[in-house]
Every structure is written in C-alpha cells, then in structure tokens.
C-alpha cells in the first residue's frame, strides 16, 4: 500500500514550539560563525598593508599626488619611519613627493597634507590553504608575494616577495638574485657557508668570544675559495613573467612631458647636428628618407628611485649614485609612414651595447657590440615578423633584464638571447661597482616614422650593501652568501630602499619564539611554519571620496574598482 502523503497545512507540520524556533536560529548563527572562523583560519584571510616596504606593488598608508609639472599620478608614503600602526600616521611638514616620472619635487602640504588627506593601505586577500597542503604545485614559489609572521615577535604580519628557497645558496649581486642548489657545491664550500651560519648564531647567543674569534679567522681564510666556486655555479634567478610585469618602474613616460625642465628631470634630446627628429607633442618622429642614421637619447638618471619614499634619507638612499640600474626596457607604438628604412633601440649594460632593430620589410635583429665602439658588431639572432605590414602600427619593446635581451612585437617575444650568447661574469660583478648607466637611444635611417606612447622603464634593483668579513651582517648580499637549509626562506621587499627584510634582520629582531629554537633558527630567514599564505588580490584599495555627503567627505567609502587588482 502507498503511504499517505502528509498535508503541509496540517497542525503537525505547521505548528512549532517557540523555544525550538529560537534554538534553531541560535544554532544557525553559531554554525555561521564557526564556518566563518574556519574559512578565515584555513582558506582565505584579509589583511591591511600598513607600510610601504612593497611599494609600488602594494601601498601602505599614503597620500595621492598628481605631479604639478607633468601630470603623472602617484602615491607617496606618510612620513612614518617607525612604521606606526594605522591611526597614528601623520604627514610631515617637510615632506616632498618626488614624481616617479619627471623627478619634480612636489610640495605635499598645499595639495594634500593641509586637508589631512591620508589614505589607508591596500586591503588584500591571502590564500592560506595552498601553503598548508604544500607540494611542488601549491607550495611557496620564488617571486610569490607572501604573508608571514615577523621573526621579531611571531605575531605581527609582514608581507614581502619570496626570493630564496630551501636547500640553496643565495647571493644578491649587482641588484639581481643568484642561487644554486646546495648539493651542487663542494663539501668544503658547504662547510664554509655553514660555519658562517654558525657564527651568526654564536654572536646572537653571546657565545664564547674565543670560539667566535677562531671562526672569524677560519672564515677569513676560507671564504675566498667558497666565493670563487659560487662565481662558477650560481645562476641568475630570473623573475617570473607575471612578477616582472609589476616590477618594471617608470623612468620616463613621454605621454607626460614636464612643463619645465630642471635638475634630474628626464627628457628626450637630439644628438646629431641638423637632426630631423622632432620630440614635441608627446611624440618622437622623423622624416629622414635618404638620410643616414640619426638618433635621440634619453637624458635621465636611471636608478632605483621609488616615489613612495618621502623622507629625505629614504629619497637619498633610493637615488644613491652607487646603485645605477642598467636593466631597462624601451617601448613605443611604431608607425612606418613610408615603406623604407630601419628603427633601432640601443641599451647599454656595463661594457656591452645591445641594439634591437626592425626594418620596414619586417626583418628584426638583435646585435651586440662594445659600448666604446671598438670591435665588430655581432648579430645574435634575427627573424622575419610574420604577417608584417608597414602600414600598420605595431607595439614595439626592447629590453635587457636579468641577462636576457628580448625584442617584443605586439606583446610577443620574437627574439631573445640565450645563456650561451649572454651571461654574467660573477667574479667581475662582485668586485667592481656598477658604472653609471649610459642613456638608451632610439635611431632611424632612411625612414619616415612616428613613435607614440614612448616609455622607458627600469627593472627592480635589490640594494646589496657589502659588509666586511666575516659573514655576519647583510644576509645574502654581495660577498655575503646565505645557505638556506630545509624549510628556510629568504624574503625581499619591492621597495628595496625602505624594506627591513631578510637582508637586514638584526640580533634584536629574533623574538623569544625563535630564540628557544636555538641554532635550528637561522637569522635572516623565515621558517616554513611562520608562513601564512600567498597574497593574490587587492580587494579594497584606498576608496574614493566625495563631498556630497558632508560627514563622509574625509572617508574613502566609495569602492575604487579601477585599482582593484591581482597581486603578481
């Protein structure tokens, strides 16, 4: 027989005791809270960026500025050398916001500070569960932006870029990160580097002075051989493609030319007498059919300056003449107005000059020569651009970054050098300071062309303050390699001049929670169990403001969808 169907309007189903309804509601609320806490603890958590150590990738508390001289918009940090928590920030009456594009020194007091126009740091989302699962696919990877517990107390959250992985030796040389797996080194070199690690621990733990002196002497005698072996085996840790995109910084954008040219303000200048180049109207153009090569070059200081930094000492440090940047990219939109001639871009790094060339018939080449003009130019590679049409505008880019030269057309790399054609000589780089970078140039011969949206960018340059032996300060920097053991990671901030990261964590930065681990914790590293997760999205950048609602005019309560972005 068929069971009788219950009537939903019957008293047995429609009537419910009030206490049961309250209990079910309470249970639902408790379950919702539990799920929220579980979600926050194990899956995704939100954080606020308090400082500028990752600028300009991520901004801490800041003000916004539109440059009075060129119109470039940028964020500048609050004068907060002590990294005060939010709510204690203040503008400094002496602060200057130096434009990233034209280097004009904007006075922040009239435009922002007098209005108390502080903006909070970026709010970000962090994936936690991939690090908990780990493995090659989900675990921490080099160049990830990661959140972790600071070594100083184990409770404060830091955010940096992961540069060094377990079981490798890392050294920052001439602004780049180099690494080699520890199992590829000789027993003698591994022993020397492990002694350096042990010496760091003894100094931190106020060890036996006699033992410290003995190790000091031994390292002074053996470190030279270890460094010589590293010179042969270290490989440059090239940045991932997605990380590289955000680590380019503007040196000069010709769409924003300065109204007035002053000291250190970049500009394109004509090199040749009686040149046919024109550089006004935010374009570079030449009608030189039948004429030999003529060129323009960028007059600019190419360094690691970051406009977020406003304190004078940070401005000076990030623009220090000892840290010129030679990894550059020049890009523009190219139009051949007649089907003849060639366009060339020249980039110099130390003794080498690389030329990226494109002809009106679609031929493209990369040429290498010496910057002083001696020796014969060498063609490293060439190709024909498929479906090239001289009547069509193309996006052209030429870059030298991490010891790889690339020529890029319409967003695709069509030519690139390999390690056999171009590689660093680490012994020379370690021992000689980088020279001032010659300006990039653009040249044309027998051509009628127009270039628009002309931009020059510099790559990230990690400052490496070399310290004297023994290896007890400036971890992982030039002449101070660091041996990373199992589950040890090395962190760097994108704002290299104002980032207290693995390079600079001192004895006092080791909190009690790590001191109790004794020698199993190495200063200058982040243990795996202190990692929280991978940052992946800025869900609430500084909100927009409006005076339409008076009591909310000083609050950024309107979502700024344009600045919401993935974290690379």
* Overall mean pLDDT: 85
Strands, total number: 30
CATH superfamily of the domain at 267-300 and 326-458: Exo-inulinase, domain 1
Would you tell me which CATH topology of the domain at 267-300 and 326-458 applies? Jelly Rolls
Given the C-alpha coordinates, what overall shape results?
A: globular
Instruction: Give the end-to-end Cα distance, rounded to a whole number of Å.
Output: 66 Å
Question: Can you characterise this structure?
Answer:
This protein is an alpha+beta fold. Among the domains are: 11-44; 267-300 and 326-458, Exo-inulinase, domain 1 (Jelly Rolls), CATH 2.60.120.560. The radius of gyration is 28 Å and the shape is globular. Strands 1, 6, 7, 8, 27, 28, 29 and 30 form an eight-stranded antiparallel beta sheet that branches. Strands 12, 14, 16, 21, 22, 23 and 25 form a seven-stranded antiparallel beta sheet that branches. The protein has a seven-stranded antiparallel beta sheet with strand order 13-15-24-17-18-19-20, with no helix packed on it. It is built from eleven helices and 30 strands. The longest helix is centred in the first third of the chain and has 25 residues, at 18-42.
């Amino acid at each position: 027989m068929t069971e009788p169907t219950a009537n939903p309007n019957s008293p047995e189903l429609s009537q419910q005791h009030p206490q049961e309804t309250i209990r079910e509601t309470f249970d639902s609320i408790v379950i919702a809270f539990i799920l929220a806490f579980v979600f926050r603890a194990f899956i995704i958590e939100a954080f606020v960026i308090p400082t500028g150590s990752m600028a300009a990738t991520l901004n801490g508390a800041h003000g916004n500025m539109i440059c009075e001289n060129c119109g470039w918009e940028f964020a500048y940090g609050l004068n907060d050398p002590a990294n005060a928590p939010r709510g204690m920030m203040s503008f400094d009456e002496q602060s200057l916001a130096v434009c990233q594009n034209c280097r004009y020194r904007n006075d922040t007091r009239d435009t922002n500070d007098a209005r108390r126009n502080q903006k909070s740091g970026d709010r970000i989302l962090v994936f936690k569960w991939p690090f908990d699962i780990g493995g090659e696919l989900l675990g921490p990877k080099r160049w990830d932006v990661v959140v972790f517990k600071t070594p100083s107390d184990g409770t404060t959250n830091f955010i940096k870029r992961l540069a060094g992985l377990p079981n490798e030796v890392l050294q920052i040389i001439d602004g780049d990160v180099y690494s080699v797996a520890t199992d590829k080194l000789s027993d003698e070199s591994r022993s020397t580097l492990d002694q350096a690690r042990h010496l760091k621990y003894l100094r931190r733990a106020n060890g036996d002075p006699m033992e410290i002196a003995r190790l000091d002497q031994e390292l002074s005698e053996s470190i030279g051989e270890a460094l010589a072996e590293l010179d042969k085996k270290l490989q440059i840790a090239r940045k991932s493609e997605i990380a590289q995109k955000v680590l380019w910084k503007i040196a000069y954008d010709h769409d924003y030319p300065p109204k007035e040219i002053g000291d250190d303000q970049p500009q394109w200048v004509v090199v040749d007498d009686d040149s046919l180049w024109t550089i006004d109207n935010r374009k570079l153009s030449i009608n030189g059919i039948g004429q030999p090569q003529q060129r323009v070059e960028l007059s600019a200081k190419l360094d690691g300056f970051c406009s977020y930094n406003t304190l004078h000492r940070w401005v000076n440090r990030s623009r220090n003449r000892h840290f010129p940047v030679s990894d550059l990219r020049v890009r523009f939109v190219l139009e051949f107005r007649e089907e003849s001639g060639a366009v060339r871009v020249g980039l110099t790094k130390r003794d080498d000059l690389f030329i990226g060339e494109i002809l009106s018939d679609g031929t493209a080449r990369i040429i290498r020569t010496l910057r002083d003009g001696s020796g014969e130019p060498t063609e490293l590679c060439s190709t024909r651009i498929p479906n090239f049409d001289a009547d069509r505008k193309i996006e052209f880019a030429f870059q030298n970054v991490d010891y790889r030269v690339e020529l890029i057309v319409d967003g695709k790399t069509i030519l690139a050098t390999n390690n056999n054609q171009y590689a660093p000589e680490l012994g020379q780089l370690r021992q000689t300071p980088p020279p001032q970078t010659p300006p990039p140039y653009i040249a044309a011969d027998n051509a009628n062309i127009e270039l628009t949206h002309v931009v020059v960018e510099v790559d990230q340059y990690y400052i490496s303050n070399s310290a004297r032996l023994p290896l007890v300060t400036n971890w992982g920097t030039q002449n101070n390699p660091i041996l990373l053991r199992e589950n040890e990671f090395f962190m760097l901030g994108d704002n290299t001049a104002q980032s207290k990261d693995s390079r600079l964590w001192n004895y006092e930065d080791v909190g009690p929670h790590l001191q109790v681990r004794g020698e199993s914790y190495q200063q200058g590293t982040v243990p795996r169990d202190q990692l929280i997760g991978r940052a992946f999205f800025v869900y609430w950048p500084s909100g927009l403001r409006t005076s339409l609602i008076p009591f909310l005019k000083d609050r950024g309560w309107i979502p700024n969808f344009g600045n919401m972005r993935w974290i690379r």
